[in-house]
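From the methods appendix. Each design record in this collection lists the tokenized structure first, followed by the designed amino acid sequence. Records were kept in a plain field format so they could be parsed without special tools. The example shown here is representative of the layout used throughout.

RECORD:
FOLD TOKENS (187 positions):
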């Protein structure tokens, strides 16, 4: 069976992340991706995870503690637009993931925004290792979602093909706007 965009995001991450890598979860939420990344990088690696909601950090901290994965994670109660100032410029990142949209079962007014997503992408691209990947899983059914999808599409389509390969993965016959995945890989 074909993988969902979420499942495929993990497949794409698993293919490139190795023990000891530094990686980013740009939208922590309940910590599903943070925990997945923490498993892959191991105790010699580092996961920087960002979210603007305090509850995301509480939920993620709990999950990581239960799984014994807190040692290799830095949970940041700040927006991903602060990546540039937060992650040292000489830190080379192997991967980053975004789940754009709102956190299910929480405040639907707190959504990711095109301008801050762009700021985060600029900072990540500057730190991305060769063969590294940035994955964006874009939910766009909510108000404002289409604008963010357009930004991600335009941003990734404009990246020079000599330096980056960009993939999209999308189901085109499904109801209710299933998320669209983008993968930016540095050559
Ligand atoms: C679709 S959810 C992420 C789900 C998450 N990957 C998980 O495993 O549960 C989007 C998250 O982005 C967060 N968010 C919104 N604006 C943000 C920003 N500027 N920087 C970082 N996170 C942000 C929301 O608070 C929300 O938790």
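DESIGN:
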């Amino acid at each position: 069976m074909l993988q969902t965009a979420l499942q495929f995001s993990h497949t794409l991450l698993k293919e490139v992340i190795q023990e000891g890598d530094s990686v980013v979860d740009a939208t922590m939420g309940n910590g599903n991706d943070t925990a997945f990344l923490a498993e892959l990088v191991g105790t010699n690696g580092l996961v920087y995870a960002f979210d603007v909601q305090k509850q995301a950090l509480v939920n993620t901290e709990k999950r990581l503690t239960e799984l014994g994965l807190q040692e290799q994670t830095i949970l940041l109660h700040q927006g991903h637009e602060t990546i540039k100032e937060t992650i040292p410029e000489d830190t080379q990142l192997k991967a980053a993931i975004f789940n754009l949209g709102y956190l299910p079962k929480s405040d639907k007014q707190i959504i990711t925004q095109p301008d801050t997503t762009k700021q985060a992408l600029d900072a990540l691209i500057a730190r991305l290792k060769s063969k590294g990947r940035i994955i964006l899983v874009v939910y766009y059914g909510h108000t404002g979602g289409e604008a963010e999808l357009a930004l991600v599409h335009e941003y990734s389509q404009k990246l020079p093909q000599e330096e980056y390969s960009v993939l999209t993965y999308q189901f085109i016959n499904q109801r209710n706007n299933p998320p669209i995945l983008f993968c930016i890989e540095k050559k």
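APPENDIX NOTE: The longest strand covers residues 128-138.
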